[in-house]
Amino acid sequence: MIVRVASVEPAIEVRDLRKSYGGLEAVRGIEFTVRRGEIYGLLGPNGAGKTSTVEILEGYRERTSGEVSVLGFDPDNRPRELRARVGIVLQSSGIYNYASVAELLDHFAHFYPHPRDVDEVIELAGLSEKRDARARTLSGGQRRRLDLALALVGDPELIFLDEPTTGFDPAARRGAWSTIRSLRELGKTVLLTTHYLDEAQELADRVAIIKDGRILAEGSPSELGVGGGSRYRVAYANGDGDATVVETDDPTRLLHELTGAALARGEQLRSLSVTRPTLEDIYLELTADAQ
Amino acid sequence: MPSSAAALWRQYRFERRMFWRNRSAAFFNFLLPLIFLALFGAIVSGHQHELDVIVPGIAGMSVMSTTFTALAYNLTFMREQGVLKRIRGTPLPSGVYLGGLALNAVTNTAIQIAIVVVAGRAFFNLGWPPQPLTLVVFVVAGVAAFALLGASLSYAIPSFESAPAVVNGVFVPVILVSGVFFDVKHVPGFLRDIAQALPLEPLINGLTGGLVAGHGDINHHLTALAVIGFWALVGVVLAVRGFSWEARRT
Q: Where are the beta strands (DSSP E) in A169-258?
């Protein structure tokens, strides 16, 4: 039997995390665990406490209280060994405008003990054609891919992605998503923050929905979609053409009744559909409840 | 991970390469002292006493502009752009990064002082520096004080847009009152007292000893050196207490 202790220990553990700025409590007792090799999404509106939480894990801010472990380290005193094993993509960050893509990656690679091959990283980030272009000539989407490449060049175990596709056009988002999925195939752990629901649904193995400094719900996107309450929505139009929407936990029974009644009347049920709420519906429901 | 010395050398070379890439900035950086020397050389042409004042004055201004002004600008720019924050998230030690920036600035100081010395000999009858030790000691002290004060000033600059106003608001009055362009003896007493308490006038005092014959050796400039040392200490305290790696959130 092979036991790999390192892979059992979670990548990130957060217990009762709190952060106050003056009198304002931005993070109010957040708890979650990110397992090795998963993509974990923190989803929430602006000002929910996502960035405060992530920046505490990245070592940029000090927590007010609670316990935090990142790859077994306390990020508070910014241990260098931890920084060597983590890659960070910030929401927005500048770079040496006069350096080329390859020069920047080569320079940053030397910060790390076991960097990846620069050309491999350029390829992975989809920047092969821009290898020798100066950073200042890159488009917004290319700059974002450079951010990702710079975070990957040290071959980190854990990658923080803060709003990685904000401002992307749909094609660029698809491209970025496939790059992020390929990180999972490389066995990397990813902590993703986003306010795009489809992004969380598309990428994350598990999602925590944050609002007002608290986690409102946690689970896989599909779990969140089916767990608890009226989770099926049956829509149809009756003989008069009136559209009706019914929410139910038991769509089988409801459909049987509806179709039975319609057949008995000799009518058709037009525009019949059964849907599960999307993550967006859950999110709106949860964030509205919290107000 | 490379040793700190190797990392510092690598960071320094990278900063130098980036400095030369921005050609117009690099060009004017070195042209500025030459323009001042040419203009004032023409204005006071033939008056050796005035020339003896101008050359060390421009040398002092060069020390201040390559360290104080340049670092206040660069650190503000890189802080507001998020370069500092990005670097801080990597395993590169902060000291290595800031050391690379400082060495880059010091290299520009050395080049400008060399330009001033060569021009002083070629065009202003100053000869080679009569007191090279005094020259080196004061350049080193001036660089240390002004680099630290420039890093501290960046903290007081809220955004990159306001950087020119804040930096020039300090730089221009200081070079005017400190006798860059005229003998500080001609300045009213109260202004002279202020100038002598600031770091630039003592720096020019020491550079005059280094560059112009007949002003005694380093022992004649120890008070000036003490004032610069005091400002370097002020700079250390302010830079350590106030330095910020991140853009303001407002």
A: 189-194, 206-211, 214-219, 232-237, 243-248
